[in-house]
Amino acid sequence: MQPAGALQPAPGGPAAQVGPVAIGQPGQQPAPQKPRRRVLTSLGFQIFIYFGGWWDLAYYILNILVFVYKGLQLPYPTRNFALEFSFAFLWILIEVPRLFLASKGNKTERAMPIIFSFILALPLVGMYVYYVAFQTFVLKVDRLMNAVALIFVGIQFVFGLLAIIRFILATRFA
C-alpha cells in the first residue's frame, strides 16, 4: 500500500507520461505563450541620456560658478551679465524636459517624444554656441564645458535618429 500523497504511475506505464502537468485545475491545458517581440530600445542612446544628465548637473554647477567668478573678477556690464546669467536658468528649464522626452521615447519605443526632444535641443545648441562665441567674456573653461555639452547633444542626436529609424521600420514592416 502506498502512503497518501504518493505519485501514482500513469496508465500505460512510464512511456505514456508526456511531461509536467500545468499548475491549475486538473485537466486544464497550459495557456499558449505569445511569441516574443524584439526589444527595439537603444541601449547606447539610453546610456548617453543617462550620462548626459550627470554631465548636465556638473555643467550647471560649473556654469554658475564661472558666472560668479566672472561677475566678481571681470568688468562685466550689468545688463549683459543679467542676460547671460538668466540663460543658465532658461537652459535648465529646457534641458530637463528634453532628456525626459528622449528617455521616454526610447523606453516606450515611440518616435514622437524623441522628435520633440530634438526640437527642444535646437535652442540649447543655440545657447551653447552663444556661450562659446558671443558671450561678453569667454573663458577657456567656457569653451571646454560647452564643447563637451555639444558633443553630448550631438551623440544623443545620432543615437536618437537611429532609434527613430528602428522604431518606424519595426512598425511599418510588422
TrEMBL record:
Membrane topology label: Multi-pass membrane protein
Keyword Mitochondrion (UniProt): no
PANTHER family given in the database record: GEO07735P1-RELATED, GEO07735P1-RELATED-RELATED
Record's protein name: Transmembrane protein 216
GO BP field: non-motile cilium assembly
Organism of origin: Tetrabaena socialis
InterPro entries documented for this protein: Uncharacterised_TM-17
Top-level taxonomic group: Eukaryota
Pfam family of the protein (one): Transmemb_17
Comp. bias intervals (Low complexity): 1-31
This protein's record includes keyword Nucleotide-binding: no
Taxonomic lineage of the native organism: Eukaryota, Viridiplantae, Chlorophyta, core chlorophytes, Chlorophyceae
Keywords: Membrane, Transmembrane, Transmembrane helix
Region (Disordered): 1-34
Subcellular location as annotated: Membrane
